[in-house]
Amino acid sequence: MPGILRNPSPPPYPPVLLRQSIHVVLLVTAAFLSGCEPGRAPLPTGNLDAGSKIFADYCATCHNPAGLGTKGGAPPLAKSPWVAGSEQRLIRIVLHGVRGPLSISDTTYNLEMPSFGAMLDDSRISSVLTFLRATFGEGAPAVFPNTVREVRRATSTRTVYWTASELLEVP
Prior knowledge:
Layout: H1 15-33, H2 46-63, H3 81-84, H4 87-96, E1 98-104, E2 107-113, H5 122-136, H6 145-154, H7 164-168
Antiparallel strand pairs: 1-2
Helix pairs in contact: 2-5, 4-6, 5-6
């Protein structure tokens, strides 16, 4: 019919809506995989955006924006058992730093990562670790602010960096 405009397919989703939808799917999946406790709701979708920004500001320079590590420098985060493994260990690394030999994928890194516990509050640490686990941790569950707060309290007297051997003793 003349004069009628027809659009055979709907317009594509706006990139922002698509990115938010992907984040919701990731968070719901993380909550499901973690056996989300009653009363422990999934993190808001903005958590991954905040975590991405914190990663860019504090982590990407050493660990590479794609999480691949740097030649002769910091280890990769992508597919790292330290990122995908125990959230208790990962929180301790961010809170207090880590020093000395650390093995990832048959490569030993003998460097020092500074602590960020004094710079980042529990919510920001939760955001960046949730982002790391969602992006590089092969489906590892989200890290919640209350878990960071509990670990911070339990390790509040610690004044030195962790070693890999100490961290491996943490479940």
